[in-house]
Design a protein that fits this description.
There is one protein chain. The strands form 5 sheets. The protein has a 15-stranded mixed beta sheet that branches. Strands 33-34-35-37-38-39-40-43-44-47-48-49 form a 12-stranded antiparallel β-barrel. Strands 1-2-4-7-10-13-16-19-22-24-27 form an 11-stranded mixed beta sheet, with no helix packed on it. The relative contact order is 0.06. Helix 1 packs across helix 2. The protein has about 700 residues and is mainly beta. The chain is built from 4 helices and 49 strands.
Length: about 700
């Protein structure tokens, strides 16, 4: 360096030139570094807008608009709002590198729109800002639009849509007319929205003539309260295929929300980021399985879903023998699942698949189990499949149609039990003891047999009745009716006979021979413990639990006896009766055979009934008397509770189908006096019950003694 300076010093002009050159180079490098740093800082803070379009108000049908990276704009490609004739059938092509950054919607057209975005659309924080829309803001609702957000292969930043305002949407199509055409939406790029009630893709279609299609192989990301990746509205059929990623963050936000009609949903999104869902379930859901670790998962735990969904495996899936794919479904209840097993062919191999719960595990988590079907062998029968799964500590998912049938059988049994218990209490209001001795005491003992036609159910009981005569006109009494044997075919109900039916009565008679006025008031109460087990129908489960069945009633009856000769008596009667009863709420127990126990609400039944009819008696001789009656009862007020389950399955089984408010009754009895203080009686009672027109037949056999 010293030598260099010394040599330059020998020639001062070259030295000055070189020095100045070095100085200028250093200054230039410094300015360049500062400029690049500043540009990088600016680029990181905002999107650099560079793009313009050759038509910003395409109101003529058939217009084609092209947007390119050069130039700049502060307006979007927007057709006239509020017009159903302007801006229809317009084509817009946004070329790669184009950036449309404005404070408003970037592309808004009428029906029949054909839009392809290979650039970057950004609506800033504009409220109701739409990246691409068709039919919004009172434009034509005829539909028929095709919108694609697609990146250019190998070119980063292309095919992107960003919105930042409330109620905004990356892509929005409104085609609510019933006559509208179907629409197609494709996203292979990125859609990012933020703001309350925003959506990545929103479709509102009422088309009855076609099937709308939404396909996502890119990335849809939303943030904000009630901000969903895909919103489905309207009544039109929609198919959705998701082979990309849809994520939603914020309260009440989901990957897909549907208040419409998704006929088919294909999904491969899973892993630690399952597809979240809320609303009306798709009719068909097909999981896409790529390999052992890459397969679709659907999570509805944070949403509220309705409807019944059929599960299957997408045809393009690749399966493996003897494999369990964990948590393919999460949060579905029994009433949301239409099927849980089937067969599948892949690569020439036949498989049987089953949705299962782990024994002792969560009823909300469903795993997919794959088992091979040997060549030339038939799929295993359902019972065989269940046994094979139990051997692996799995239980087949119960499904809606089979569980519905199982609960209907349970409901039919409950109707018979309610009818039988009600018949017992109502028949108890006829109990009496009117043969007295010197001590004014009457005691009657015997048995009762009741058959209810509905299922049928049979009851055999021991009976004791007692009464005390306070005066020739007034007596009071009571009874105990203890079940000895009860038959309930079908194995659904096991009844506890520990508690007898009890009742009291009081009678005032104008005359001891039965003529004139007679008034009677009576009351009864029955309580019976029951263990109820749902029958297994197909893929349903034999859930079991214990509860109590109760019935209580009070009746007032007034009759007037007319003597017909000296051997017969005719007594018209009228009265009112109030009966209340039902079942206590209970829960089934989870076990190694029941994965999804149900919880049942209490059932409350009550009726207020008017009674009318005739009672006739005739003495065949001094010791034998025949008694017969015929009448009708009419419910003037009634409530019949439904069988309602909650928890792992929400069901509401009607219990009042074919309910009859007007019903006939009849009795026939024979009495034989062994002495002046002893009597044998045999009485048959026929009643039409309210539930499903069930009938009950009761036979009473008694021995009565006056003390």
């Amino acid at each position: 360096m010293i030598n260099h300076i010394f040599n330059v010093a020998k020639s001062p002009i070259p030295f000055i030139v070189e020095f100045n050159t070095m100085l200028l180079r250093s200054v230039y490098q410094c300015i360049t570094r500062i400029s690049l740093a500043g540009f990088a800082l600016f680029a990181s803070a905002a999107v650099f807008a560079a793009g313009s379009c050759d038509n910003y108000t395409p109101d003529t049908s058939g217009t084609t608009v092209t947007c390119i990276p050069s130039g700049s704009t502060s307006a979007g490609v927007i057709s006239t709002q509020g017009s159903t004739s302007a801006g229809n059938n317009v084509t817009v092509n946004v070329n790669s590198g184009t950036v449309l950054l404005i404070n408003g919607s970037t592309i808004g057209l009428g029906s029949g729109a054909n839009v392809t975005n290979n650039g970057n659309l950004n609506t800033s924080s504009f409220y109701n800002g739409y990246g691409i829309s068709s039919g919004a803001n009172s434009r034509s609702q005829a539909g028929g639009s095709t919108i694609a957000n697609t990146p250019i292969t190998g070119v980063s930043g292309t095919g992107s849509i960003t919105t930042g305002g409330g109620n905004a949407a990356g892509i929005y199509i409104s085609a609510t007319n019933a006559s509208s055409s179907a629409n197609t939406i494709t996203n292979a790029g990125s859609i990012t929205t933020s703001g309350a009630n925003s959506a990545g893709v929103r479709l509102n279609s009422g088309s009855r003539s076609g099937v709308n299609t939404i396909s996502n192989s890119g990335v849809i990301s939303t943030s904000g309260a009630s901000a969903n990746g895909i919103d489905i509205l309207g009544s039109a059929q929609v198919t959705v295929e998701n082979t990309g990623s849809i994520t939603a963050s914020g309260a009440n936000s989901f990957g897909i929300y549907s208040a419409g009609n998704i006929t088919t949903l294909n999904n491969s999104q899973g892993g630690s980021n399952p597809l979240t869902y809320s609303g009306i379930l798709p009719v068909n859901y097909n999981v896409i399985v790529t390999d052992l670790t890459h397969y679709g998962k659907l999570d509805v735990t944070k949403g509220a879903v309705t409807g019944v969904m059929n599960f299957n495996i997408n045809n393009g899936s690749s399966l493996a023998y003897n494999t369990t794919y964990s948590t393919v479904l999460n949060g579905l209840k029994i009433n949301n699942l239409g099927n849980s097993y089937g067969t599948f062919n892949s690569g020439g191999n036949n498989y049987v698949w089953a949705l299962v719960h782990r024994v002792g595990g969560s009823a909300m988590q469903s795993d997919l189990v794959i088992q091979p079907i040997p060549p030339s062998a038939a799929p295993p029968a359902l019972d065989t499949l269940k046994a094979e799964l139990i051997a692996q500590d799995y239980l087949l998912n119960p499904v809606d149609p089979d569980t519905q049938a199982s609960l209907t059988s349970l409901g039919n049994t409950l109707q018979s039990l309610f009818a039988m218990q009600s018949a017992g209490v109502v028949n108890g209001t006829t109990y009496d003891c009117s043969l007295f001795g010197a001590n004014n005491v009457c005691v009657s003992a015997g048995g009762r047999f009741t058959n209810v036609s509905g299922y049928p159910d049979n009851t055999t009981s021991a009976l004791i009745i007692g009464a005390y005569r306070f005066s020739p006109n007034l007596r009071f009494g009571g009874y105990l009716d203890q079940n000895l044997v009860q038959s309930t075919p079908g194995g659904i109900a096991q009844l506890n006979n520990g508690s007898p039916m009890v009742g009291v009565f009081g009678v005032w008679s104008q005359n001891s021979d039965g003529t004139g006025v007679e008034a009677k008031i009576s009351a009864g109460y029955a309580n019976k413990g029951a263990t109820l087990t749902r029958p297994v129908v197909g893929a349903s489960e034999a859930g079991s639990g214990s509860t109590n069945l109760t019935t209580q009633g009070i009746q007032g009856l007034l009759k007037y006896g007319f003597a017909v000769g000296n051997k017969s008596l005719i007594s018209p009667y009228a009265g009112m009766r109030y009966v209340v009863g039902g079942m206590g709420g209970y829960s089934e127990a989870q076990s190694n055979t029941v994965s999804s126990p149900l919880t049942y609400n209490a059932i409350a039944n009550y009726t207020t009934t008017a009674l009318a009819g005739f009672i006739g008696s005739h003495k065949l001789n001094e010791k034998t008397m025949l008694v017969a009656s015929a009448g009708a009862e009419k419910d003037v007020n009634a409530n019949v509770g439904n069988l309602i389950s909650t928890g792992n399955g929400d069901y509401n089984i009607a219990m009042n189908n074919n309910y009859r408010t007007l019903r006939p009754t009849a009795t026939l009895g024979a009495f034989y006096d062994l002495s002046t203080r002893e009597r044998l009686g045999l009485t048959g009672i026929y009643r039409q019950e309210a539930y499903q027109a069930i009938t009950s037949t009761t036979v009473l056999a008694t021995y009565t003694v006056g003390l």
